[in-house]
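Minutes, structural biology subgroup

Action item carried over from last meeting: produce the structure token record for Thiol peroxidase (Vagococcus humatus). EB confirmed the sequence was re-checked against the source entry. Recorded below for completeness.
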Amino acid sequence: MEVTLKGSPLTVEGKQPTVGMMAPIFTLKNLQDKSVSLESLLGQPVILSVVPDIDTRICQLQTKRFNQEAGAMHDISFATISNNTKEQQANWCAAEGVDMEMLHDPDNQFGKAYGLYIPEANILARAIFVLNKTGEVVYEEIVSEIAQEPDYNQALTVAKELLLD
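Output recorded by EB:
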């Protein structure tokens, strides 16, 4: 798969989960050094927000938007994932007042499992996955131009519809 960064093409390695598939399992550390597994997020709809670098503008906008939504919707699990270090994520969250679940993937284990790792830039592709309460992918968006925001409204709409089932 190819995406672009400010118009320059980049190759995304691997196979990305698609609608109807079970989401690949993962376990990552959060800012409190606790292991958070996919299984621990399930039982309710899940929004996985994947950002390339928390220290860039679009990633910050994406994370702040989902942090705002997470504060208002307690019946949906939200997690932001990047391959930034714990320290980078913690410093940014402290400066911005963000308190949602932040998971760091500095070894790109999640990125490789989800087919989102871009080796030539050592970042993850920008993506959103909405999972149902059992872990099936019901919505996925891998943003074709990394420097653009994802469709927040569509992801949130799909997640909210899962609450009605």
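Discussion: The domain at 2-162 is CATH 3.40.30.10 (Glutaredoxin).
Next step: EB to file the record with the rest of the batch.
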